Amino acid sequence: MKKSETKSTPTASANAASANKIDHSKTVAASAAAAAAAAAAEPTKAELEAEFDPNDKELCDAAAKIQAAFRGHMTRKVVTKDTPDDIDIQEITKKVAEELDIDLSDPELNKAATKIQASFRGHKIRKEIGTE
């Protein structure tokens, strides 16, 4: 047996390492080429301005519709985020009804209602007289 057959030679190891470096550099080059192609595919501001006329009513309407839909989406997202899930509507309704519980037989309440009605009637008559 020869020594070269049983042991790997330094040149074989160097060739394998060199092949690995070449493969890595090919990958880097391919990535750079892909990035350059993506950058080339993205239009510049000047190209976009040349392509889209700001006086195009149809385009402006479409943009406004998209923007309005997005704003609505974001508003709904914020509202649902801020609204607690455990609100008991019946409990709130009951509390409001208790706060608004008005005794209709209260004489002070009747006086207040009469005053409001008289003020409104006077306003209405003055308005009618002024327009004739």
TrEMBL record:
Instruction: Return the SMART domains for the record.
Output: IQ (SM00015)
Query: Which parts of this chain are annotated as the region Disordered?
Result: 1-24
Which domain of life does the protein's organism represent?
Answer: Eukaryota
Pfam families (UniProt xref): IQ
Classification via PROSITE patterns: IQ
- Single GO term (MF): calmodulin binding
Record's protein name: Uncharacterized protein
* InterPro entries associated with the record: IQ_motif_EF-hand-BS, P-loop_NTPase
